[in-house]
Amino acid sequence: MSEELQANNDQLLANERALLESLERNTFLSDILDRSSQPFGVGYLDGRLGIVNHAFEELTGYTADELQKMDWTATLTPPEWLDVERKNLEELHRTGKPVRYEKEYIKKDGTRVAIELLVHLVTDKEGNPQYYYSFITDITEQKRNREILSLSNRVLHSAEEHHTLQPLLEEYIRTLQEYTGCDSIGVRILDEQGNIPYLAYAGFSRDFYEQENPLSVRTDHCICINVIEGTTDPSLPFYTAGGSFMINATTKFRATESDEEKEKTRNTCTMVGYESVALIPIRKGDQIMGLLHLADHQEGMISAEKVRVLEQVAYALGASIVRVQTEEALRKQEKTAQAILAAAKESIWLFGTDDTILMANPTALVRLGGKDTGEVIGHQYSEFMTSELAQARRARIEEVISSRRSVQFEDIRAGTIFIHTFCPVFDEAGAVSSIAAFSRDITGIRQADEELLKKNEGLHILNEELTATQEELRQSIDELTTMEHELRETGQYLENLIQYANAPIIVWDPAFRITRFNHAFELLIGRKAADVIGQPLELLFPKKFAEPVLEIIRKTTRGERMEVVEIPILHQNGEIRTVLWNSAAIFGSDGETVLSTIAQGQDITERKRTEEALHEAHLRLTHHIENSPLAVVEFDAQFRVTRWSDEAEKVFGWTMAEVMGRTIDEIPWVYEEDVDRVASISADMMNGKAPRNKHTNRNYRKDGAVITCEWYNSALRDETGELVSILSQVLDVTERDRAEADLLEKNQELSELNEELTATQEELRQSIDELTTMEHELRETGQYLENLIQYANAPIIVWDPAFRITRFNHAFELLIGRKAADVIGQPLELLFPKKFAEPVLEIIRKTNDGERMEVVEIPILHQNGEVRTVLWNSAAIFGADGETVQSTIAQGQDITKRKWAEEALRQSEEQYRMLFNTLTEGFCIIEMLFDADERPIDYRFLEINPAFERQTGLHEAQGRLMRDLAPNHEEHWFEIYGTIALTGEPVRFENEAKALNRWYEVSAYRVGGPESRRVAILFNDITERKQAEEVLKTIADNLKASNQELEQFAYIASHDLKEPLRMVTCFSQILERQYKGQLDADADEFIGYIVDGALRMEALINDLLLYSRINQGMRPVERVDMKHAIEEAISNLIIPIRERNARITRGAMPSIQGDLSQMVQLFQNLIGNAMKYCPEEREPEIWINAERTGKGWTFSVKDNGLGIDPAYHEQIFMIFRRLHTKAEYPGTGIGLAVVKRIVERHGGRIWVESEEGSGSTFLFTIPEKPL
Predict the structure, then answer these.
(1) What counts of helices (H) and strands (E) characterise the chain?
(2) Contacts of 817 (CB under 8 A, 6+ apart)
């Protein structure tokens, strides 16, 4: 017998050692998991958490104890993610394969963290689910970067597609509604007046828009202004470090504010019920240009994470807005330039440096024979002219390129004389990139000059007639001067007429009755409107013209327009006025019926009279000039010959081709002794001392002969006093002087005649001066060019050698925000920011030496303090000596917006590149290669990030083919990427690259359209994770096998021990019955110990068998009536219930899915414990209830017993753990462990609520769905 006991004892010791070894293995595995940097957790089917490692605690902010007491489905998982989680867990249960999915956790501090879970399901031998274990990766930063990159790319791509701002912003708002879920989003941009209007919005009501849209930084105070001005305080909870404002419960927040604080803001969003609001600055570089307004009536719609993403995306939006605005401004300038070109009466061309035609205006095309644009653009201009002209033209182009200055010259084509001006156009590097050419037909002017010179031969014969005619001419000129003055007044009048709508305007109905006309029309006809309204139109016209005029007017009832129609109008005093009319029909709502006609007129009566007078005076003047016998020579401001008459060729012997463009110094025609006197006379003419003069000097003819000439010179200057040209009429008096020398003493009469001739010549000079003035009037094109400068879109400025501003145009006024009258005479310094003034002036001072500024970038200070960046070119204006700089003119191009756009794009690119370079994941863009059947055969790496090489082990991959880098790369990679390139469907997957000996997690999507064949790939080397998963799976499998072996061992050991234990119990009881009292007292005591120990051992083995059978012996799930289970448990305990007079109260019980026998055991153990641990002097009272909670039921068993110290609430559910001795309360310490295992076996959890001395309440949950 002792040998058997010894054997049993040895077996028990061996079993204990096996249990300790298993515990050590489990402790080792648990330590590995706890030390892992990757969060790991075990979750039960009822929502409770089991084991979690330290990394999991850091991820969530909760301690392990806090986590194990909570329902993770209700506490950690946001409501919107529950459906995603449910679907993935259903797939896990259905397939048994691990699932990987993304979701969010709500951390203890209320913030959210984006995670990726890899979830495994653990089952028992019968395949019944036991619990989950998960590996978790924090992907918050990765997800944010992906979102920033994706949204920024969408914005920048939209800017490439949309060339106007409105469609860009509307698409951006749709993108943000999709991303944020907010129902109201708007984009507000700060304008130059300080207003912040909505350029685009969606979701806001019309009332809200009208109330909020007029917001101004100059007059209003609110949070929007703080964000725009960058005055947010990040220490306050509703402002972010990026300068944004966000709040998710405005009503609650406003309730905490004082009345004083509430007065500081307009509070429009709160008034219309927006609970979630965010204001995010839109930036262009360091400047805030606007804000993004998000709002929703629901609380909690705008997370801090999304605001951080949108703060970065707002940089891309700012860059896109600046880019589109810049493009719009450029298109507007281009249209303006095209309109100017179309209206110009000169031929205007743009040529390449190789003479290729790049642009031609309509006038140029007409003069080229009416060709279409397509027939000339891209062709060389020399194709349309003779080789001789082409060669000369080429020389002029080379001169422009080499001198970098404008060149003017003439040529003749098919009898037509053209004067051409070639101007260099510089690129950003300052090189001549093309040539702008302006051409004017001057044939008529030259013919008039030639005819004038031919007819001057008879001028002496007509001296007397000329004297009389001169008086008439003076009177005509006086009249012309008066008319010119009147025309200027008329110009001012017309300006006021346009400004104040004073043009004669009339309206009539389809019956041709006058319905309305303005004050100007009253003045036109000398009648008041009240006297004429309702009268027929006939009363406005002279009778002899009435019917033809009405015939024209009747057409207007059919919708036809009068366009520049000349109609006589009858004044009340009988005077007939000539008026130019334009009309337009006013249609009814059907767009066809003419309701009335409106006409606007221009009284040209005086102009008609002036034109007639000018025409008559011009005919008289032309007649006299054409009969002049004098040689005519004209010089420009540099004394280069610009006109050479036939008579001049006869007098001097040189042809026009030999002298044109040459200076008087280059033509050897002044007699040496007269050179100084001629130079002095020329200088006086140039500096304005002698606007006209007459002198006689000796000249050389081409053949070397010396002749004496009388020169009649007249200087022509523009309105600014600058010399334009000098007109000289030359009379060869050689023969006359000789005759005078011979006859001086003999013929006094001839002397008197000479004096008379001299007087006549003076009159002739005056006539020529007046002729020059008339010619100046004919050059109104110069005034046109002046107006073109004044109203050009480019800013133009002029300063003197003392660097005082002498002039600038309207565009410059807009550039600096000041009127010309306020700045003229001021020093240049006021135009520049102080810190840039000295370096800029250092550049400008060089212009006094004649140097040019060519594409120089200079900052300009606007009156409002804004600094504009302008690209400048300048040219010196020289004095008569050709060396002294009298002033400098500069033309600029405002490139501020372009610089903003460049800076915004640079910053956006830097941010993109920073994200690109700092991504820990590998990233690349590949170009797919296909065969003729569209099957993918290879791909080329176009772009890779720094992490690429680390993630793949491939070196110098950019620009190379994958098959060259890894010839054995699996085909499925090419097929996946090929499908993405063709279909555009993004894919996310995990796959093994055996050729690289790595596992990858991959997100891939197409870049551009199908034709691009490009795919962007974001990937992460998960080889270590895969290996870790494999290790952990092995650990979990080993743990599962160990637990199963342990349970099997406990079952077998308990079962096998029962037989020898029965023998021990049986024989010890026989010894007790037969030999009690027959042996000594010690023997009786020893026998009692044996019997008691054997009985306790039997109870322990029975409990162990019960504990081990819970997982092994669960029956198929069935519907269990919990009321029936409680009644059966009470029936099993009826004897102790009666012995203790226990009272059991139960509420309504549900039916659940489970195992009836185990439910009976559960309640039997809890009711039994309630009675056992109730003091003897107290009658036990037990209350059993059930309550519906979430997706299942919560049951409670409450008693009036001893109660349990909270320090032991966890320990009591551990096997063999007891709080009392066996002498106080008998038992094995397995009862509550059995209860816990039954509850967990059904997917629930159990806990106790108790204080020592106050009774206990045991609560457990059972889920509604069967497991």
Answers:
(1) 41, 42
(2) 862, 863, 864
Homologous superfamily of domain range 792-900: PAS domain (3.30.450.20)
Query: Which residue type is seen at 1218?
Result: R
pLDDT at 1258: 95
Strand partners, 699: 670, 707
Architecture of domain 162-332: 2-Layer Sandwich (3.30)
Of the pLDDT bands very low, low, confident and very high (cuts 50, 70, 90), residue 756 is low
* 880: three-class secondary structure by DSSP: coil
Which tens digits make up the pLDDT trace of 1095-1147? Answer: 666 666 666 556 655 655 456 678 899 999 999 999 889 888 998 899 999 99
Nearest to 105 by CA among 153, 72, 65: 72
By residue count, the chain amounts to 1267
Is the domain covering 344-444 a CATH 3.20.20.190 domain?
Answer: no
Could you give the strand order of the β-sheet that contains 505-508, starting from the edge strand earlier in sequence? 514-517, 505-508, 594-603, 576-587, 565-570
CA angle in degrees (0–180, nearest 5) for 317-318-324: 85
Tokens 């009284």 sit at which residue?
603
CA nearest neighbour of 587 among 597, 573, 574: 597
Of the candidates 887, 88, 131, the one whose C-alpha atom is nearest the C-alpha of residue 77 is 88
Contact 76, 104 (CB under 8 A): no
**CA–CA gap between residue 526 and residue 520 (Å, rounded):** 10
CA dist., res. 718 & res. 721, Å (int): 5
Domains 792-900 and 1113-1263 share a fold: no
User: Cα Rg for the chain, rounded, in angstroms?
Assistant: 53
Q: Could you tell me which residue, 114 or 430, shows the higher pLDDT? A: 114
CA dist 1010 and 985 (Å) reads 11
Every domain of the chain and the residues it spans:
36-139, 162-332, 344-444, 494-607, 628-747, 792-900, 916-1016, 1113-1263
Provide the 3-class DSSP secondary structure of residue 673. helix
In eight-state DSSP terms, residue 205 is -
Per DSSP, what are the bridge partners of residue 112? 106
Q: Percent of the chain at pLDDT above 90?
A: 14
Structure confidence at residue 449 (pLDDT) = 64
User: Residue 860 burial (CB < 10 Å; 0-12/13-18/19+)?
Assistant: buried
User: And the tokens for 1180?
Assistant: 């036990």
Flag the least confident range among 296-305, 459-468, 704-713, 900-909.
Answer: 459-468
CATH topology of domain 916-1016: Beta-Lactamase (3.30.450)
Q: Class of 1113-1263 per CATH?
A: alpha beta
Residues in Cβ contact with 157 at an 8 Å cutoff, skipping those fewer than 6 apart:
none
Give 1241's pLDDT tier (boundaries 50, 70, 90).
Answer: confident
The total of other beta-carbon atoms located within 10 Å of residue 391's CB is 11
Cα(752)–Cα(745) distance, integer angstroms = 12
448 vs 889 pLDDT, higher one: 889
pLDDT grade for 1259, boundaries at 50, 70 and 90: very high
Is the distance from CB of 279 to CB of 291 less than 8 angstroms?
A: yes
Residue 12 has pLDDT above 50, yes or no: no
Residue 337 CB contacts under 8 Å (≥ 6 apart), including other chains: 793
Q: Is the pLDDT assigned to residue 977 strictly greater than 90?
A: yes
pLDDT in tens, 372-408: 888 888 888 888 888 888 888 888 889 988 988 888 8
Q: Of 1263, 1245, 1262, 1242, which Cα lies nearest the Cα of 1117?
A: 1242
Q: Which CATH architecture has domain 36-139?
A: 2-Layer Sandwich (3.30)
Which of 591-600, 747-756, 1136-1145, 1246-1255 is the least confident region? 747-756
Topology given in CATH for the domain delimited by 628-747: Beta-Lactamase (3.30.450)
pLDDT at position 4 is: 46
Q: Looking at domain 494-607, what is its CATH homologous superfamily?
A: PAS domain (3.30.450.20)
